[in-house]
Amino acid sequence: MKLAACYSHRYGEEEWARRDLLDWIKSICEESSIDGSMSKVVTKHFRDQLTAKGWSDPVRISVDSNVTIFSLYSDLAFQVQTGNVSRYAYDLLKLQYLYQAGKINAVGFALPSKEAAKKMNDNVANAERAWKELCIFDRIITVPILILAFE
Description:
40% of the residues lie in helices and 21% in strands. It is of the alpha/beta class.
């Protein structure tokens, strides 16, 4: 697996840099022993790397719901999406809720590149599509997001 690209929505990259976590989070995508087209392997890799640094396991976004996000640490959230593109849109809704509720201040979001997504399955979310859609919904999705595209 390698980092193919980064996209910064509403200063997401700057938020990670301000906390001295930008190089670390990018380095998680640079693991030559991980096949970036195997979704379960990629997800496990991110889980292992995050929890080793004190990040949470999946967290419910509300006590009134079983809806979860991938991980939290301080005022940051992290999401990995290697599934259907509809799941990515739902992830954005959950993350925006946490931001508007004052529970987080920025997000890291790992998605396969367009080419890596094609190798995974049909209609898999990809970073390029996510970026284009975030630009369209700029006034709706206001949480700062760092998108990490891996392949």
